[in-house]
Design brief:
This protein is an alpha+beta fold. The protein contains four helices and nine strands; from the N terminus they run ββαααβββββββα. 45% of the residues lie in helices and 22% in strands.
Length: 213
């Protein structure tokens, strides 16, 4: 996944998004009467690593780009080996360079979730003095995310029509939306409603959207 793909919902002004910025306290994140489901959790490096790993796997554009890179590098390596085998030893340095590049690409792809998760947690703690603490509510028509850690309510109410796909990892249900946005729901973080009820609810919403298209 490229670094422009966010785990949390971006603060982007559209006609469908209701954004508020006010001073808040912990009491502001208590149960809301209109909400059907509420989910609260704090991101850790392990949880972010899991999410980024999933995002990289689910990103079709990234998978295609990676496949092209692997094919080009592998083809170059094979051709170099063939020409070296028939006596063109001048290509040995190029073969070594190609092997090093392939190793770097593979290592980066493997380590990318770790690098991203550590970077996000480090920056968050440096900026706000704590980890990423989020509170998400779901009512009949909208899903709303609050960033508690920032000390101000950066609140976005988004309609379910924004959801383009739903994925699951070990600890999350991930709602993917347009413009490469996502909303991650922690399976153990429900303070109102249950995981099983939420699964039924969100997939029913997806079916409704498909029928209305």
């Amino acid at each position: 996944m490229s670094e422009d793909e966010e785990i949390v919902v971006d603060n982007e002004s559209t006609e469908e998004v209701d954004t508020e910025n006010d001073n808040i306290t912990e009491r502001d994140f208590e149960s809301e009467e209109d909400s059907l489901f509420e989910n609260r959790f704090e991101y850790t490096e392990d949880l972010l690593k899991e999410l980024y790993t999933g995002m990289l796997k689910w990103d079709k554009r990234r998978k295609v780009n990676s496949l092209i890179i692997y094919i080009l590098l592998s083809a170059n390596i094979v051709m170099n080996i063939i020409f070296i085998a028939i006596g063109n030893y001048a290509l040995v340095p190029l073969l070594i360079i190609s092997l090093i590049l392939l190793g770097i690409v593979l290592a980066f792809r493997f380590l990318e979730p770790v690098i991203l998760s550590k970077s996000v947690i480090k920056n968050y703690r440096k900026e706000y003095g704590k980890g990423m603490d989020v509170f998400i509510t779901f009512d009949e028509d909208y899903m709303t995310m609050h960033d508690i850690s920032m000390g101000v309510t950066q609140q976005e109410s988004m309609p379910y029509s924004r959801i383009t796909n739903v994925h699951e990892s070990e600890n999350f249900i991930v709602l993917r939306m347009d413009k490469r946005q996502t909303m991650s729901v922690y399976k153990k973080g429900f303070t109102k409603g249950t995981l099983e009820e939420f699964r039924v609810f969100i997939f029913d919403k997806m079916k409704e959207l498909e029928q209305n298209q």
